Amino acid sequence: MQKKQIFNFGIIFFVGIVLWFIPHSKDLNPEGWHLFAIFVATILGIVLKPLPIGAIAILSMCVATITHTISLEVALGGFHNTISWLVVFAFFISRGFIKTGLGERIAYYFVSIFGKKTLGLSYSLLTSELILAPAIPSVTARTGGVIFPIARGLARSFGSDPDLGTERKIGSFLMFVAYQGSVITSAMFLTAMAANPFLVGLLQEAGYNISWGMWASAAILPGLISLVLMPLIVYKLYPPSIKQTPHAAQIAKNKLSEMGKLQSKEWLMLGIFVLLIALWVFGSVIHIKATLAALVGLSLILFFGVLDWKDVTNESSAWDTFIWFSTLIMLATSLNKLGFTPWFSEQVVGLVHGMNWVWAFLILIAIYFYSHYFFASSTAHVGALFPSFLMVAIGIGAPPTLAILVFAFSSNLFGGLTHYGSGPAPLYYGSRYVDVKSWWKFGFILSLANIAIWLGLGPIWWHLLGYW
User: Fold this and answer.
1) 102, 266 Cβ separation under 8 angstroms
2) What single DSSP character describes residue 244?
3) Is the alpha carbon torsion for 72, 74, 78, 79 positive or negative?
4) Is residue 172 within 8 Å of residue 240, measured between CB atoms?
5) Alpha helix locations (H) across 314-435?
6) CB distance 133 to 124 below 8 Å
7) Is the pLDDT of residue 70 over 90?
8) What is d(CA 13, CA 163) in angstroms, rounded to the nearest whole number?
9) How far apart are CA 272 and CA 102, in angstroms?
10) Could you report how far apart the first and last alpha carbons of the chain are, in Å?
11) Which pLDDT belongs to residue 451?
């Protein structure tokens, strides 16, 4: 074990021990407080990463069980959660897009249509991102594995290369727009980012439910407006020097020509994807839940040979996500059952007691959103703060569905703040097209624009839909 790992484990252990033995309220049972100490140490482990997140989850389960804070049955209970399996199935489905080349083909297709101008080129990348988002729950795989290499390749084709000091020609603009677009599309679909099903799992344990169709319908209008306005804002504040890109469309057409006609497995993948969307949208009407729909989709993919079983067993990221995802759901759920989450909510309610619920709600949202500066993982942020902040919001009088939607969408949008705010952020930042100062500056400006759209227009749209 390296010195850095030992040092990070030392920090985690110290924080956990201090919290474990610190005096706590008599209104809270010891098991609830001890699980909170373990939970904080787990979140800290996810941030510091002395070991992979799955290994941190295993250690967390072990400590929680061996200290008799929770039973072994409870510790393993998260693996029974249907939302955890939805994430796993969706990972396998996304592998079909990547293996068949369908995801890459879709991206190049839109570049060939809209890529004659720099602004149009950015919208072609966003359109591809939007289409792929419902079926690829790993934003890192979707944005980093499909969109990023295309954006970087296009930038370099115009001589925009940080090694040459020409990143501002077009590359900085494309990279920043592509990343910020992934933040928005992740907020638009329940299956577009791993933390979304995790969040829904927490809601179900608390007695609330939000379907795939409800999430998508609530997000579609503010999401599309954000996707339209965001590139315009970046174009104005962080403009590229190259405004016209006449040969980008030709590059894309050449790539499509090299790929040839749609292969049979691509057609199968496309058909299964359309069926999946239909099942997710109309599932509540025909009594098919999102996880069952994903299971149907995966079964068809395996039956028709789009993927073979080795593809499933080799999808290590899916199984890794399943382990830590299930563990975090178990910890957050157990915190609620042991009384910690209600107790904490009561303390925060006391701080905003007497305030108009609207102003108190806005303060809670601002704290929840901008506290992401202290997180390097959306899932860690959701697990640490979402349950408590939601209960506080409902406790002060905010309509439950309104509070759920605002916190759910915020749990994606805050990823655009920093160069470490979500999985693909370090990849885009590491390409050296956007410096830290620009990232933080324009990330903050775009966060204000997104809040104005989603928190300003969103509630009106959701009220028209009859959600609150």
Assistant:
1) yes
2) B
3) positive
4) yes
5) 316-337, 340-351, 357-370, 378-395, 400-413, 425-430
6) no
7) yes
8) 42
9) 12
10) 52
11) 96
Q: Which two tokens stand for residue 442?
A: 């324009």
CA gap 430, 28 in Å, rounded = 45
**Structure tokens that stand for 409 in this block:** 């969408």
Q: Residues 173, 447, 423, CA angle at the centre, nearest 5°?
A: 70
If you average pLDDT over residues 83-109, what whole number do you get?
A: 79
| Tokens at 246, concatenated | 């006449």
Tokens of 446: 């775009």
CB 34 within 8 A of CB 20: yes
Distance, in Å, from the CA atom of 143 to the CA atom of 122, rounded to the nearest integer, reads 14
pLDDT in tens, 354-404: 788 999 999 999 989 998 887 767 877 887 788 888 988 998 889 999 999
Amino acid at 394: I
Residue 321 pLDDT greater than 80, yes or no: no
In sequence order, the 6+-apart residues with CB closer than 8 A to the CB of 209 are 200, 203
As given in the structure block, the two tokens for residue 289 are: 């839940």
Q: What is the DSSP string of 160-180?
A: --GGGT-TTTTHHHHHHHHHH
The encoded tokens of residue 259 equal: 């790929």
